Amino acid sequence: MRQNKAQVFVISGPSGSGKTTLLSSVLKEKTLQKKFARSVSFTTRPRRSKEQNGKDYFFISEAEFKKSLRAKKILEWTRYLSYYYGTPKEFVDNQLKTGKHILLCLDFKGALRIKKLYGNHCTTIFILPPSLTELTKRIEKRCHLTKREEIEQRLQLAKEEISTASKYDYCLLNDNLKTVVEELKAIITKKINPQS
Asked: Of 105, 86, 80, 75, which Cα lies nearest the Cα of 11?
């Protein structure tokens, strides 16, 4: 039997805080790469031009999503800007059984749910943007074809999400990508190698 049970890491932060970039940087690290699996979420939102089904998300219909929910195939879920997002239970459980650690990118409600399910084997990390001004610029840049109303919704949600930061195990300020990547890797390494 393994002495150290596989760990679940939940990364949260508002849209535009840099979560996806940070996760990608961590998973490129050769010492961590083979030890981790990044969970791919279900979503009912339309696929963006550069996104790949099965790599970025599993793009499914709302009917399929609700069917999976009823069948208890989703660990946690949320509705964001009228679309559903959920974490596939089977994938996460299978990876943990093989000893692989899991990285999840979730909202506050999802982070709480996963923490409740996995307890001491779950670490929650919140990514703070440098400022609301910078966050606004990032959201506007990535959503330049998006309606102003949706940008305002994202900013309002961002403020609500930032207010939950103190509830996480760790809170990192993403004002320098290289620095915050190193801080995130240090937290992860300490959790998966507690003896070092």
From this structure: 105
Structural domain boundaries enclosing 47: 8-192
Q: For residues 106 and 97, give the distance between their C-alpha atoms in angstroms, rounded to a whole number.
A: 21
Question: Tokens in use for 125?
Answer: 């990390």
Q: For every one of its 196 residues, what pLDDT tens digit does the chain have, with 9 covering 90 and above?
A: 334 589 999 999 988 888 888 988 888 888 888 899 888 899 999 998 889 999 889 999 999 999 999 999 999 999 988 999 999 999 999 999 999 999 998 989 999 999 999 999 999 999 998 887 887 777 777 665 556 777 788 788 888 999 999 999 999 999 998 999 999 999 999 999 876 5
- DSSP designation for 3: S
Which pTM value belongs to this model? 0.84
Q: How many domains does the chain have?
A: 1
Q: Answer whether residue 94 is part of any domain.
A: yes
Q: Taking the CA atoms of 156, 49, 90 and 126 in sequence, report the sign of the dihedral they define.
A: negative
Contacts of 100 (CB under 8 A, 6+ apart): 6, 35, 36, 37
Torsion angles phi and psi, residue 111, rounded to 5: -60, -45
What distance in Å separates the CA atoms of residue 140 and residue 186, rounded to the nearest whole number?
A: 31
Beta bridge pairs of residue 101? 36
